[in-house]
Q: What sequence folds into this?
């Protein structure tokens, strides 16, 4: 099948859309990919909805702003789809839709992704698989990370021999360990770009630390770093997941932008290094993807701590679109009833499929 996958991350730069030729087990080829950026007005609506979601925290009636934010998410998803469909010259057979996460509380089996899967199916005239986290949460899993099955398929396509690790540096960082026999271990390691982005934006210095220039000019605050690393997330083993807002940033008010960026960059690298110690074996290779792989200061910090790190781009992949591709792959798996999550990736008791299928109303009728 030709499957369209979407990812709209917590960095709020826009909606990634990517086409993948797959049967949900193998990756046969890659079609066009495109980032549809949010306008400032669109981003503002989603930011306000996220703030309301954090205040709401899943108790009582959901914020009314979710509807407006969902409409924005839908519009940009359609915009992204039109571009990749035009480039491909054909419609997808299936769509994998993640939605925009505004709240993730796995300890309460709660995750909230806004967006309208039925409206998307109607707009694209294609079946849509969404809500791929919910079955895992209902079965006692973390609902995240979702991407490991795709990372394993990429490793197979590239002929990488385990143990190898894929590290995604989005708003939050997550690792997938693929052992020599294909065994999977995955979890959120800690923050990646999200906290750095928040500090940079709060200072009116842009949307992110472009090229790591702020971190490169700053000094790490060792006391703050030690406090950040004492967070309960870093205690114990096993599958675990995060919300990018789980870590406080009030300490940053007393720091220069450069020192805050340097400290948070070290925090990301150190938290990945902590995660590496809990893996079954030391990976021969770390494949790094997501926006953070374009930050040379962060990449050097990771190499200093982990050893061989190569970006997905170095291996002929598309670093910025791996997660969107993964949603396409997972949609195909869902359609075939194949597992999306595993005991080693989310803590669910047994391999579990998931997702809900929406058909265009014209087809459904």
A:
């Amino acid at each position: 099948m030709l499957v369209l996958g979407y990812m709209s991350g917590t960095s709020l730069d826009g909606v990634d859309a990517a086409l993948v030729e797959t049967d949900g087990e193998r990756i046969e080829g890659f079609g066009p990919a495109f980032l549809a950026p949010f306008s400032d007005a669109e981003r503002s609506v989603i930011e306000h909805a996220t703030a309301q979601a954090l205040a709401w925290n899943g108790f009582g009636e959901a914020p009314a702003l979710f509807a407006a934010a969902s409409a924005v998410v839908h519009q940009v998803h359609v915009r992204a789809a039109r571009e990749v469909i035009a480039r491909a010259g054909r419609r997808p057979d299936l769509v994998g839709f993640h939605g925009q996460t505004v709240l993730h509380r796995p300890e309460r089996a709660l995750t909230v992704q806004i967006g309208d899967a039925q409206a998307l199916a109607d707009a694209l005239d294609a079946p849509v698989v969404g809500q791929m986290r919910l079955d895992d949460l209902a079965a006692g899993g973390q609902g995240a990370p979702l991407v490991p099955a795709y990372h394993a398929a990429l490793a197979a396509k590239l002929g990488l021999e385990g143990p190898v690790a894929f590290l995604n540096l989005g708003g939050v960082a997550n690792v997938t360990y693929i052992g020599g026999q294909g065994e999977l271990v995955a979890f959120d390691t800690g923050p990646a770009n999200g906290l750095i982005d928040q500090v940079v934006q709060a200072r009116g210095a842009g949307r992110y630390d472009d090229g790591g220039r702020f971190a490169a000019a700053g000094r790490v605050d060792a006391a703050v770093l030690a406090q950040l690393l004492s967070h309960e997330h870093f205690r114990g083993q096993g599958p675990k997941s995060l919300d990018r807002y789980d870590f406080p940033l009030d300490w940053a008010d007393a720091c220069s932008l450069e020192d805050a960026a340097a400290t948070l960059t070290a925090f990301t690298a150190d938290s990945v290094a902590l995660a590496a110690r809990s893996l079954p074996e030391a990976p021969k290779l770390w494949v790094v993807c997501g926006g953070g792989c374009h930050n040379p200061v962060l990449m050097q910090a990771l190499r200093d701590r982990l050893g061989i790190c190569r970006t997905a781009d170095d291996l002929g992949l598309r670093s910025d679109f791996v997660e969107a591709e993964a949603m396409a792959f997972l949609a195909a798996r869902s359609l075939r009833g194949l597992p999306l999550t595993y005991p080693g990736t989310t803590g669910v008791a047994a391999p579990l499929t998931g997702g809900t299928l929406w058909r265009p109303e014209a087809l459904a009728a």
Q: What stands out?
A: DSSP finds 13 helices and 13 strands in the chain.
